[in-house]
Design a protein that fits this description.
By secondary structure, the protein is α/β, with parallel strands linked by helices. The protein has a four-stranded parallel sheet with strand order 1-4-3-2, with helices on one face. Helix 6 runs parallel beside helix 8, helix 7 crosses helix 8 and helix 8 packs across helix 9. The protein is globular and about 55 Å long.
C-alpha cells in the first residue's frame, strides 16, 4: 500500500485490526514487524491451519532504500511452513521518492493499493466507528462534510474526533473549514502531503 499521512497511511494497521476482530475465525491477530529479525520470523514461521496471517512492515522503518527493497524480496523468497498462509502488507510513503520507485519496481501483478481521498459515496463508511458516523447519515450532512474536508482522511479523522464529542454537523464543518484556512489543520494537511518538506515550498530567507 502506498499513501501519506494525509490519505490515512498511519491508520492502515488499525483498519486491519478491526477487520481481524470481525473475522477471528479466519484471521490471526495482525502483527507489525518491529525489527529485521522479527520480520524474518514472521515470514518463516506460523502454525498450519485455517487462520491466515497478515504481517505489516513499514518501509519507513528501514534506514536506507536498499534495506527496504531487500525486505520486499524476502517476502517473495522466504516461505512459511507447509499449511501456513500469509500476506505481507508493506506500507510505503508516497511523500518519499525512493518509496515511489520501490513500489513501482515490486508491482508486477498490479498488487499496489494506492490510498486516496474518500469519495462522497464513501463518506458514510470511511471509519469503523459507525456510532460516531451517525450525525453524517443524511445526504446534506455528508455534502457539508465533503465540502469542508475535500475527502482527505486526515481531515475526516479530525471531524470524527469532534463527532465523538457530541458536536453538531454545522459546528464540525465550520471548525474544520476554519482550521484548514488559517489554523493547525491546514498545516497538518500540508505536512501529511509532504509539501512543507519540499524545497519548492520553502519561503526565501
Amino acid at each position: 500500500m502506498i499513501g501519506s499521512a494525509a490519505t490515512g497511511l498511519g491508520s492502515v494497521t488499525a483498519v486491519l485490526e478491526d477487520q481481524q476482530k470481525r473475522a477471528p475465525s479466519k484471521l490471526d491477530p495482525i502483527v507489525c514487524s518491529t525489527s529485521p529479525s522479527h520480520y524474518k520470523e514472521l515470514l518463516s514461521t506460523g502454525k498450519p491451519g485455517p487462520l491466515h496471517r497478515i504481517a505489516v512492515v513499514k518501509l519507513s522503518r528501514f534506514n536506507d532504500v536498499d534495506k527496504a527493497r531487500a525486505s520486499l524480496r524476502q517476502a517473495e523468497t522466504i516461505q512459511p511452513p507447509a499449511g501456513v498462509t500469509r500476506t505481507v502488507v508493506a506500507l510505503a510513503d508516497a511523500c518519499k521518492a525512493e518509496h515511489l520507485a520501490i513500489a513501482a519496481e515490486f508491482d508486477p501483478d498490479n498488487a499496489l493499493i494506492p490510498l486516496r481521498r474518500v469519495t462522497l459515496e464513501g463518506i458514510s463508511s470511511w471509519a469503523t466507528d459507525m456510532e460516531a458516523l451517525a450525525p453524517f447519515a443524511e445526504t446534506e450532512a455528508r455534502n457539508r462534510l465533503m465540502d469542508a474536508t475535500g475527502g482527505w482522511p486526515i481531515l475526516l479523522d479530525a471531524a470524527l474526533v469532534q463527532a465523538r464529542q457530541g458536536r453538531r454537523v454545522l459546528t464540525i464543518c465550520k471548525t474544520i473549514h476554519e482550521g484548514v484556512s488559517s489554523g493547525g489543520l491546514g498545516t497538518n494537511l500540508l505536512d501529511g502531503l509532504g509539501l512543507t518538506a519540499s524545497p519548492d515550498m520553502r519561503t526565501p530567507d
